[in-house]
Each structure stands twice: as C-alpha cells, then as structure tokens.
Amino acid sequence: MIRKIFIIIPFLIFHPLFAQEIDCKVSVNFEQLPPQNKSDLADFAEKIQRYINTYKWTNFDLGDEKIQCTLNIFFTSASGNNYQAQIFIGSQRKIYNSDKSTAVLRIFDDKVEFFYDKNAPMYHDEFRFDPLLSLIDFYMYVIIGYDFDTYEPFDGTPFFEKAFRICTNAQSSRYAKGWQKVNSGYSRFNLINEILDPRYASFRKAMYEYHYNGLDILQKRPENAIATIDSVIDILIKIKNENPTSTLVKLFFDAKYMELAEILKNAKNKETIFKKLIHADPSHQSTYLEYMKD
User: Fold this and answer.
1) Distance CA 288, CA 209 (A)
2) Can you list the alpha helix ranges (DSSP code H) found in 4-78?
3) Residue 2 pLDDT > 60, yes or no?
4) Which residue from 44, 57, 145, 161 has the least number of CB within 10 angstroms?
5) Which residues, listed in sequence order, are joined to residue 68 by a DSSP beta bridge?
6) Is 212 inside a domain boundary?
7) Is the C-alpha dihedral spanning 14, 16, 19, 21 positive or negative?
8) SS3 242
9) 247 inside domain
10) Residue 27 forms part of a structural domain
C-alpha cells in the first residue's frame, strides 16, 4: 500500500531518464474572445501542458505512479494581452489494489487574470512572480501536497510551503485578484493559509486516514474502512463547527460527496452517518437523501 518513492540524486534531477511526477491534461475554451486573441491562444493549451508535464517538480521519483490532474481554462474576456478566465482544477489518486481512482481535488477558481505573450518563452523561476506561470506553479504544488498527504501524514508540507510563497509574492503584484484573503467564497490565499494553519492539522491527518485507512482497504476490510470514514466525517463536522466557511471542508465534499454516498449506502448505520453528512455538507443534501433511501 505504501507508495514507492525514491529520492533522486541532486545532479540527476533534470536527467530525462527520470519521469516527471505529473500527467496533466489541459483544455481551453476561448470562444468568448475576439478573433485576434483566439489566434494568439491557438497553441496555449499545448504550451501549458508541456510546461507542466516536462518539469521535475520534486526530488522524488514516483515511477509509474504519476499524479493525474486536469486543468480546464475558460477565457471570459481580453484586453490586449491581458486576460480574465475561470479555471477548473482536478486531481485524482489510484486506490490501492483496485482499478479505480478517487478524486482528491476539485477546485473552481473564477478570479483568474494574467498577461500572456504568445512569443515569450515559458520557464520555471520560483523567485520571479509571473501572473500566468506562478498560478500554474501554485496549483501544481497544491496538487502534489494533497497527493503526498494521502500517503503519509503531513508529507505534503514542503509543497504547500512553496505554494504559500507564491501566494505571498502575488499579493503585491498588479495581478493580486484571487490571491488575497476573502471573507466568503474561494481564494487561493484562503486555501493555502488554512492548509498550513496548525488549527487545521486534524484535516490533513483526516485526508490521510480517509485515503490510506479508508479507501485503500475498502475492498478487503469494508467494516474497518467505513468506520474510519465515519470518524473522518466527525472531524470535518468539528472543523466546520469552528469555522462554518472552511475552504478545506468545502473542497473535500465537492470532491468526495458522490463517492461518500456510494460507499456509505452499504453501512450498517447508514441513516446515522447520512444525517451527519447532511449536517456537514448541506449543499449536497439531495444526493445524500437519495442514497440514504436505497
């Protein structure tokens, strides 16, 4: 069940024999934009996909277990080379001893703005803020951090810290939209700030428990797995009681609500568990009520 991770000798980090950690599929929709901008963005998806998939994001070799993710970018407006967009970020993880995968992250970010010059080269520079590439870097580090946390508690911390540094640099730029704290709704700052806040350490431990001691053993020890998942729901309820607008809790249920409904419809105490789910995640109440009756 333990993922095989090998530390790469530093001078070999960028050697092409070592596979990159991420396999990302990028799609774009720019139908709302003027013809000139559509032309400028003709190979945008290909460039971003290559930027992500050919880079070595960590000092680890994950072998064939690449992290699968998707970026769907919807352009909403353009002014010269300045663009506004909405982006959907999704990632998934293989379930141990199964041909199935589980959604780890599902994020909809509707506050995206950046400058894009089709002739400018794309290269990684952690010390330079770029409104487009730093956005991509931020989400890749968040995806990696979440993935690592599902295999070992708090293993994702180094990657979350990199994402936090990007967020901090972004806040003083002219493209600060989406990078600042908000009192309601989603922002990149709210996400990464919660992840690294010690008050939410229980959430990160729960992510590990849910995946490693829940989903990964579900086929062989279903009662134990369901008991673990039930305890995770209790943790999320406690977090939500302390912070009703928690970004982490919302994102968890956005990614997991259908999976939870499918798994827990077979629980012995399913009515009790589904009532707790409705309390923790009222936005998906109709789904929970439907599965509770099955």
Assistant:
1) 22
2) 35-40, 44-53
3) no
4) 161
5) 23, 92
6) yes
7) positive
8) helix
9) yes
10) no
Could you tell me how many residues make up the chain? 294
One-letter amino acid of 64:
D
Task: Outline where the chain has alpha helix (H).
Answer: 35-40, 44-53, 133-149, 157-170, 188-196, 201-212, 222-242, 247-264, 270-280, 285-293
Residue among 32, 34, 20, 240 at smallest CA distance from 140: 20
Greater model confidence, 23 or 20: 23
3-state SS assignment for residue 68: strand
Total number of domains constituting the chain: 1
Domain assignment present for residue 291? The answer is yes
| Residue 92 β-bridge partners | 68, 103
For 200-241, write each residue's pLDDT tens digit.
Answer: 999 999 999 999 999 999 999 999 999 999 999 999 999 999
Residue type, position 36, single letter: Q
Token duo for residue 211: 């995946």
Neighbours of 271 (CB within 10 A): 11
Give the Cα separation of 151 and 156 in Å (integer): 9
Q: What is the pTM of this model?
A: 0.93
| Amino acid at the residue 73 | I
d(CA 196, CA 160): 7
Q: What angle do CA 184, 185, 186 make, to 5 degrees?
A: 130
Q: Which of 293, 198, 183 is nearest to 246 (CA)?
A: 183
Nearest residue to 257 (alpha-carbon basis) of 235, 283, 293: 283
The range of the structural domain enclosing residue 250 comes to 203-294
